[in-house]
Amino acid sequence: MKIESCVETFLNAIVVDRNLSERTLEAYKSDLKIFSQIFKQREIEEITTENVREFIELLEKNHHYKDSTIKRKIATLKVFFNFVEQEGVIADSPTRKIRQKYKIAKRLPKVLSERELKKLLMASYNEIKFLQEPEEKRSDSDLKNNNLIRAYRDCAILEILFSTGMRIGELVMLNVNDIKPQERTILIFGKGRKERIIYISSDEVLNAIKEYLIHRKNIQTDVQALFLNRDKKRLSIYSIENIFQKYCKEGKDHEPLYTALLETHYGNNVVV
């Protein structure tokens, strides 16, 4: 069986069987694409431990890969070959004897200052204010309304992230029914589908959520996601990055601020 076919089967299986984030799935696809391109002429049964070691050496010689990235790619291969073994396609995983060790430098994430947070939030509120200008000042009313809804959405996103510290992956998975404004609570499904409830203590955050929910009701869609994109589908992690980048630029000093935002709200950092 060709490697590419095995990779496709594996990716389809983990989408159904595992509750993986969009970012994790993309990482699996990327890691296995590189491996399958190198050994695409081989049958999966022909791959040996030595072939895996050759692949690791290629990664190590490619200087733009960090040790943490190489470590992740090796872990992906182990998961993949364990799956192929369990499916009975191969007798033994060629990664079983791989024992590579990499020292991963630990560092604290950058933390946003109060001034930086205020600048970013002010940029989102200014966007709403601009779009609320009298109709005669703006020509396309439909475009204005759509942009205004997105502005309220962006404001609610930023307020929720900064006040709760939830992960971006958790935020994009929120549904409308997970928000209880009257109870001031948000139901979050974290890693492993573990539930936890966050209390909204700030009136500013609660008001931003209420304002967005009012406009959210005007969107005609059967999608239950709280935050929607232009196509009325669930907002992705990458869309959140774009939202961050937009308001970081509008708030100036966008490079360091954007980096700090992503480091603060992605999965493995102590802040979240």
TrEMBL record:
Gene Ontology cellular component terms for the protein in this record: cytoplasm
Start and end residues of each Core-binding (CB) domain: 1-85
GO molecular function: DNA binding
Subcellular compartments: Cytoplasm
Superkingdom of origin: Archaea
Pfam families, per database record: Phage_int_SAM_1 (PF02899), Phage_integrase (PF00589)
Stretches that traverse the bilayer: none
Main location: cytoplasm
Domain Tyr recombinase: 107-272
InterPro entries, per the entry: CB (IPR044068), DNA_brk_join_enz (IPR011010), Integrase-like_cat_sf (IPR013762), Integrase_catalytic (IPR002104), Integrase_recombinase_N (IPR010998), Integrase_SAM-like_N (IPR004107), Tyrosine_recombinase_XerCD (IPR050090)
Key words of the record: Cell cycle, Cell division, Chromosome partition, Cytoplasm, DNA integration, DNA recombination, DNA-binding
GO BP of this protein: cell division; chromosome segregation; DNA integration; DNA recombination
Protein name: Tyrosine recombinase xerc
Organism: Candidatus Methanoperedens nitratireducens
